[in-house]
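Q: Could you write out the predicted structure for this multi-component system? I'm mainly interested in how the pieces pack against one another.
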Amino acid sequence: MTPETNSVTAPAITPPQRVLLGPGPSDVSARVLAAMSAPTIGHLDPEYLKIMDETRSMIQAVYSTKNEMTMATSGTGSAGMEMCVVNLIEPGDEMIVGVNGVFGTRMRDVAERSGATVHSVEADWGQIIQPDAVAEALKQHPSTKVVGIVHAETSTGAHQPLVEISEMVHAAGALLLVDAVTSIAGVELLVDEWNIDAVYSGTQKCLSCPPGLAPVSFSQAALDVMDKRQSKVQSWYLDIFMLRNYWGGDRVYHHTAPINMTYALHEALRIVLEEGLEARVARHTLHHRALRAGLEAMGLSYVPEHSLTTLNAVRVPEGVDDAVVRKRLLSEYGIEIGAGLGPFKGKAWRIGLMGHSSTRRNVLLILAALESLLAEQGAAFTRGAALAGASDVYAPA
Amino acid sequence: MTPETNSVTAPAITPPQRVLLGPGPSDVSARVLAAMSAPTIGHLDPEYLKIMDETRSMIQAVYSTKNEMTMATSGTGSAGMEMCVVNLIEPGDEMIVGVNGVFGTRMRDVAERSGATVHSVEADWGQIIQPDAVAEALKQHPSTKVVGIVHAETSTGAHQPLVEISEMVHAAGALLLVDAVTSIAGVELLVDEWNIDAVYSGTQKCLSCPPGLAPVSFSQAALDVMDKRQSKVQSWYLDIFMLRNYWGGDRVYHHTAPINMTYALHEALRIVLEEGLEARVARHTLHHRALRAGLEAMGLSYVPEHSLTTLNAVRVPEGVDDAVVRKRLLSEYGIEIGAGLGPFKGKAWRIGLMGHSSTRRNVLLILAALESLLAEQGAAFTRGAALAGASDVYAPA
């Protein structure tokens, strides 16, 4: 080793064991970490192709879809967003995007970069997109090709109903694109029943897998639209036409899949299906209710009217320093929660109860820790009310 | 668990312990797999930001560059290629691409999708791109903004000299973009000394890390060109302008980095720097020489005139069935080697000796296995010559 390289060789990593109650990543099961560290094999090895096939089948099950074009994109959730948009959109196409937080804003940006003429349907951050507003936009822009909407707005905690909007979109002859990053495997998400044409997600939320892959799925109607494209997809890396030959029967080499990340996702999906989707959604609902009872008993109010069960965005109480509380949670308790974004910067916390992190232990822990820290900061609330409120939810009827 | 989800829940993965001597992935050290399975923490956790900083410093060291804009892209090597191209190219820009294999062909495709007017400088597969041909192209297309070339053409094993071409490119006022996927940490690669303006690589070759990240680096000249862009980068996910704020001091949230993959890369880089770049390049050279002596003693000829030390593309002997040999190597020996691509489909093997796979043990193993299988297929060669040839290279002078 030369002295120069010696000086930049970092010590071995020693990441601490956090309790991940932020907007993602969530806690990862030891089973998933163990699977991820299985021996790396070739991406065209028959043993790996079998793992890819099984992974696809399990993604289909978790999305409640029979869509053949279902796969894990070799990138994070935002790559999944871009994959959906760039494959559906050609320059000059019209797209309606629901914008009520960071991820709707991002989808609009991605669509514009793909050459779409974007019509935004806006709502205040924390609110859901109103079906009437989508109907109005579809009426004003009858040539709309795709309507994009965020099912679970991670920046505000808003839980967007989709069924009514899906009916409108299809009645207008458009396709429905859904961001399910924070909803997959945490809240009800029925891709086929709700007639969703393109959906993407991330691995690091309610799937409780490390970040790095984006499960996506496309309906036959979406594939039919892609087959009629006049121009090549602007992204080579995310081109579904080529990826269909790689994830499909032909196994035509496209890129080298992230082998060990696929191992991790495979195990994470196994855990989801072992629990069962309905039981998993019920678990997220239960712990959300308990947390909510506790937070509200401490006087904290929720940002969204329609809150996700997987992400709890609450207002920072008057006189409490947002950053101090988060820093002390991290340094003294090893607990991560998320900061507010955009208009909620410094004004809200985002407490995730996703996947492996959604447990009674974590609900009581975060309530206890917050009660202790908020009391120190002089916030006014009845001591003990938070834990009592949460416990009531857990108590047998 | 419902009966339906039960039926798709796959069994736990049990990937076998292969010996990876194909075109990548290469064998991954147990140290890297262990680091990868360390607890997942938040991507904005101070402990993770430290790991990102250290990772960047070590990528700089391995690329022999001081470029500040050096990072690991959240995708595989092909995402690194696309990142470099889409950030440098605006619609209508002229780009020269050296095309002598799969990856030059891919770069041309990516550039065209970015709106570039591409001028190809071609060579037969297996040959290098001739500096004279680049000079001629630069003369014919004086407005060329970027020249893209593949340092290590994984599809043919050709090792492209860069110094002379770099001088021409810069004399013509253009930028040099280099594909270093199969060269990083395996053959000499001096980004600053050779005046490379944009370079990308993958983790699964000579870095011996699982696939999933793409180390990239941009010179100040490249950043200056990006700063003068008239249009947004067409890819949101790969937009350097935003990623500079995420990997830079501001840590502005862009996407959730693949935490555990970063752990793996961090450890893989540590291993590279512990060995030292010069010693590592010398090791790859030694084992390549031994393998080459052995293969040639068995009558196998190399495809490229200028062969990489990291990838050995050799012609399948007359009368030998390419696929049978590869399948038997995999099933009976657990050894992966690569098939030929394009014009070499069925006609060449690609034997990688990359990173952790580049060892005397593997050289003698693959030679012994090939000798045994080729003899069974009736290939004509002197038994024992291959191992003797390789051993001679290892023998003290």
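A: Regarding packing and overall arrangement: The mean pLDDT of chain A is 96.
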